[in-house]
Amino acid sequence: MLKYNRTNVYDFNFHLVFVTKYRKNIFTNEQARSVMKDILYTIANNNNTEIEYIEVMPDHVHMMLSFSPKQTPSSIVKSFKGTSAREWFKQFPETKEQLWGGHLWSHSYFMSTLGNVSKEVVA
């Protein structure tokens, strides 16, 4: 689906996965997963990013997302990981004690373009 901005038209679709530090199970119940989803949707809205699909697992997050070609993939990931960790620890400060060094997310992430594969197949 084409998206239109004032100066460009695009159809960028990405699969993004990032994991908790040392794959620690943090999002172990539906309430925790729901809170993290809400945080990520808020970040997306603030950064003109569309989340097509999201799944929060106990130790990682999967997202299919789309954003303007004016934004870089690394800046999008930085926004999601940094902001979500700060917001999470505001609401659940006790989880910081479960994590090595108090970091929610691992430094690494996986991101790929979807190309011509349908979004339904990736989901």
For the structure shown, list the relevant keywords.
two-stranded antiparallel sheet; 3 helices; Alpha-Beta Plaits; alpha+beta; 123 residues; 6 strands; four-stranded antiparallel beta sheet
Structural features, described:
With 123 residues, the chain is an alpha+beta fold. The protein has one domain (13-117): Transposase IS200-like (Alpha-Beta Plaits, 2-Layer Sandwich). The protein is 33% helix and 24% strand. Strands 4-5-3-6 form a 4-stranded antiparallel sheet, covered by helices on one side. The chain has a two-stranded antiparallel sheet with strand order 1-2.
- Characterize the largest beta sheet: strand count, sense, and whether it forms a barrel: 4 strands, antiparallel
Overall 3D shape: elongated
Average residue pLDDT: 91
By secondary-structure content and strand pairing, the structural class works out as alpha+beta
Overall helicity: 25-40%
- Strand percentage, roughly? 15-25%
Q: How many structurally independent domains?
A: 1
The Cα radius of gyration reads 15 Å
Distance between the termini: 16 Å
Low-confidence stretches: none
Task: Give the H and E element order.
Answer: EEEHEEHEH
Tell me the number of helical segments per DSSP (H or I, 4 or more residues long): 3
Strand order across the largest sheet: 4-5-3-6
Count of distinct strands: 6
CATH structural fold name: Alpha-Beta Plaits
Under the CATH scheme, which architecture would be assigned? Answer: 2-Layer Sandwich
CATH superfamily: Transposase IS200-like
CATH top level is Alpha Beta
